[in-house]
């Protein structure tokens, strides 16, 4: 797959299928799943992969589990795995799990016709290993996101110097904020006097944020965009502007208010006339850009 380009294998009656055709069908489904994973799911440990060990012991046990790396690849550890502590006098290591290339796990081979032979089963077992965070060799270098951290371990005298530290564990279940943003349409944003026509202090509009599909009311920020200068009734230049505030936030909307205090050329009395919101929408093109962050 390159640049989101997929070729979906298709077959027809009577077609002579080769191993490459069948591998292409598998590859299409795998690449599509990886794209789904990295687009819609956070990477890290999704289930299991617990780490246990006691100070003074020479090994740790990694429980069975499942994780995703930052490329969306599935990392499976099918059964509990025991790792010997690195045989060094002293040091600090990361215990990680990574996606294993097809040439790394044990494979099952089978003989074919005409003296051929090939691999017919590949293990999906993830690569559980110790990594030195200071290593620079290409085959040993720690790569954040592709090597999922399970614990940090201090070694002394070829044994655990302390219980494995899981505070650095890459956990996919950690809450991450969801961000949505949008804008109202220029010339179609329905402004009204606020708080009401009888004693207005400014203007307001209710902005729909339904396109973001928030589940709960997020924290909103908003800006009012548009022309501020206009020609007053007496022909003089005037300015309409004021502080923006937000009210009544919900998962699908928020009210945007602009207080129009009259000071000299700023906000002459006519900005609070019932007809002025129509000038804001049309002539001045006032509209709203917004962003919401849902925890």
Kindly describe this structure.
- By secondary structure, the protein is mainly beta.
- It folds into two domains: 43-160, no CATH class; 178-294, Immunoglobulin-like (Sandwich), CATH 2.60.40.
- Helices cover 9% and strands 37% of the residues.
- It has two helices and 21 strands.
- A four-stranded antiparallel beta sheet has the order 10-7-11-12, with no helix packed on it. The chain has a four-stranded antiparallel beta sheet with strand order 14-15-20-19, with no helix packed on it. Strands 1-4-5 form a three-stranded antiparallel beta sheet.
- The mean pLDDT is 89.
Key descriptive features of the protein:
295 residues, 4-stranded antiparallel β-sheet, mainly beta, Immunoglobulin-like, elongated, 9% helix
* Series of secondary-structure elements, N-terminal to C-terminal: HEEEEEEEEEEEEEEEEEEEEHE
Domain module count: 2
Count, helices:
2
Mean pLDDT: 89
Shape: elongated
Instruction: Give me the side-by-side strand order of the main sheet.
Output: 10-7-11-12
Strand content: 35-45%
Uncertain segments: none
Percent helix, as a range, is under 10%
The gyration radius over C-alpha positions equals 31 Å
| Main sheet attributes: strand count, strand direction, barrel closure | 4 strands, antiparallel
Span between termini: 33 Å
The computed structural class is: mainly beta
Topology, number of strands: 21
């Amino acid at each position: 797959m390159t640049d989101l380009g997929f070729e979906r294998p298709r077959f027809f009656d009577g077609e002579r299928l080769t191993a490459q055709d069948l591998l292409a069908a598998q590859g299409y489904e795998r690449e599509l799943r990886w794209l789904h994973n990295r687009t819609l799911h956070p990477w890290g440990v999704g289930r299991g992969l617990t780490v246990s060990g006691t100070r003074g012991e020479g090994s740790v046990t990694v429980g069975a589990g499942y994780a995703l790396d930052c490329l969306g690849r599935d990392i499976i550890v099918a059964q509990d795995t025991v790792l010997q502590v690195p045989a060094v006098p002293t040091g600090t290591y990361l215990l990680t799990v990574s996606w294993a290339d097809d040439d790394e796990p044990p494979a099952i081979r089978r003989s074919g016709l005409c003296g051929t032979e090939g691999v017919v089963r590949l293990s999906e077992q993830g690569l559980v290993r110790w990594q030195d965070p200071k290593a620079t060799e290409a085959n040993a270098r720690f790569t954040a996101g592709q090597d999922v951290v399970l614990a940090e371990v201090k070694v002394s005298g070829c044994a655990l110097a302390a219980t494995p530290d899981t505070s650095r564990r890459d956990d996919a279940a950690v809450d991450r904020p969801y961000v949505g943003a949008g804008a109202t349409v220029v010339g179609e944003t329905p402004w009204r006097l606020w708080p009401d026509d009888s004693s207005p202090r400014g203007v307001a509009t209710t902005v729909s944020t339904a396109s973001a599909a928030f589940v709960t009311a997020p924290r909103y920020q908003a800006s009012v965009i548009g022309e501020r200068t206009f020609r007053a009734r007496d022909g003089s230049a005037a300015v309409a502007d004021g502080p923006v505030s937000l009210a009544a936030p919900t998962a699908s909307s928020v009210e945007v208010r602009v207080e129009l205090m009259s000071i000299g050329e700023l906000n002459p009395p006519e900005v609070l006339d019932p007809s002025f919101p129509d000038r804001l929408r049309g002539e001045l093109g006032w509209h709203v850009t917004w962003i919401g962050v849902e925890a």
